[in-house]
Amino acid sequence: MKKSDQIKLVELKTRLADGYRQFKKGCFVCRATRAKGGMTFHHLWYEPDEKVYSDFRGNNLEYYRYLSIQIKKNPNRFLYVCNIHHQAIERLARWKGKNRERLIRAVRMTR
After folding, report:
1. What is the DSSP string of 38-90?
2. Mean of per-residue pLDDT scores for the chain
3. pTM for the complete prediction?
4. Hey, how many other C-beta atoms are within 10 angstroms of the C-beta on 41?
């Protein structure tokens, strides 16, 4: 990605985060407002026929332009998170049912 596109992408994400009260606190998990790895918006759910990241073939700026429309329509469908915590959410979401419950229990037991 060109440097100018990276700057546009960061500006777009920042404007989106600043535009909604629930995002102004920063990362939903750690409350960071900036992160070395960047910030992103996590879908809590997808609507039928909605495009996903892979539909944009790695064009992050175009994806976030599309995503900004979705966020404006219903910001409650998204969490604002740092990329590290987004990865953790995505990994944990892969586990289902009892295995997820046991995994969370194991984490709570760990000191």
Report:
1. -EEEEES---TT---GGGGTT-HHHHHHHHHHHHHH-GGGEEEEEHHHHHHHH
2. 93
3. 0.87
4. 21
